[in-house]
Amino acid sequence: MAKTVAGVLATAYRMNHVTTQGAGASHTTIGITDLMTSLAIVFILLFVVQLTKTSSAAQSELQENKEDVQVVLRDHIQRLGLSLDADPRDPLALMIVVPENLLTFELGKSTLSPTADQFLVEALPFYVGALCGPLRDKIDSLAIEGHTDDHGSDAFNLKLSQERSLAVMVKGLEVIQAIEPASYQCFQEITSASGRGRQDLIYDSLAVVNREKSRRVIFKIRLRSAEQRQLVGRTREVGAS
Questions:
Q1: Of 120, 122, 239, which is closest to residue 191 (Cα–Cα)?
Q2: Which strands sit side by side in the sheet containing 139-147, from one edge to the other?
Q3: Judging by DSSP bridges, how do beta strands 139-147 and 216-223 pair with one another?
C-alpha cells in the first residue's frame, strides 16, 4: 500500500512539474494545476487514512475472535494435554496438534486404534459443539490434516495420510451423529480432510527428523475473514427484510 501511494504522489508531482515547465504556461494555468495536484494529494491521503483505520479495525476484530475461540476451548484442550496455537502460515487459522500417542493408527494403515477411538469420542463432540454453536459466526472451516514421518516414498505417505485424515473425519461423523446430533449438519458443511504426507516433517535441534512428532493429526480451525463476516451480515439483513 505504501508503495502504491508513493507512486501516485510521484506521478502527481511529475505531472505538475511538466505542466509548469511547459513553454508559454500562464500563471493562471500553473495555479489551477497546483490546486488540482494539491486536491489529488489530499484525497489520496484521506483514502490511505481510511484504509489504515479499516485494516486496523479488522485486525483487532480478528484478534478478538481468536481469543474467543481460545477461551471456549482452552480448559478442555489443556485437560487433554493439547494446545491451541496460531498457524504461522495463515493469520486466520488456529491449530490443535494431536500427537500420535492420542490419535494413533495401525502401522502403515489407516485403521484407528482403540486409543484413537476413545480420544475422538471424548474430544470431538465438545469441539464441534462449540464451533457449530456459540462460535459459529466466527468460524469458516475445520480441516483435518494427516501427517506422516519420512519412512517410505512420497506417494505412499501422501496416500496414507489422506486415508488417515479421512478415517478421522468418518469417525467424527459417527460420533457427532450419536452424541451431538444438533451439530451434525454443520460438521459436514465446515469440515474437510486432507493428507500432507511427509511434506511438513518436524526436526529436532540437530536437524534430524523427529519421526514420533512428525506422525500427527492437526485440527485446523480457520476463522472468517472481515469480508466473509460482512457478507454474512448483509445476507442476514436481506433475509430479515
A1: 120
A2: 84-87, 90-99, 216-223, 139-147, 191-197
A3: antiparallel
Cell of 170: 468418518
Q: How far apart are CA 142 and CA 65, in angstroms?
A: 15
Provide the whole-model pTM: 0.72
Cell numbers at 67, concatenated: 481469543
**Comparing C-alpha atoms, which of 95, 120, 97 is closest to residue 215?**
97
Question: Using CA of residue 68, residue 69, residue 75, residue 78, what is the dihedral sign?
Answer: negative
Q: Please report, for the chain, the start and end positions of each structural domain, with discontinuous segments joined by +.
A: 2-56, 80-231
In order of 137, 221, 226, the CA distances from 57 in angstroms are 18, 22, 9
Q: Which three cell numbers stand for residue 193?
A: 480432510
pLDDT in tens, 133-188: 999 999 999 999 999 999 999 999 999 999 999 999 999 999 999 999 999 999 99
- Alpha carbon distances (Å) from 107 to 97, 151, 153, 194: 20, 11, 15, 19
Q: Half-sphere exposure of residue 88, counting CA atoms within 13 Å on the CB side?
A: 1
End-to-end CA distance of the chain: 37
* Alpha-carbon 66 to chain mean position: 10
Using only C-alpha atoms, what is the Rg of the chain? 26
Task: Give the pairing type, strands 90-99 and 139-147.
Answer: unpaired
Dig out the grid coordinates for 203 from the structure. 526436526
CATH class of 80-231: alpha beta
Element (H, E) at 99: strand 90-99
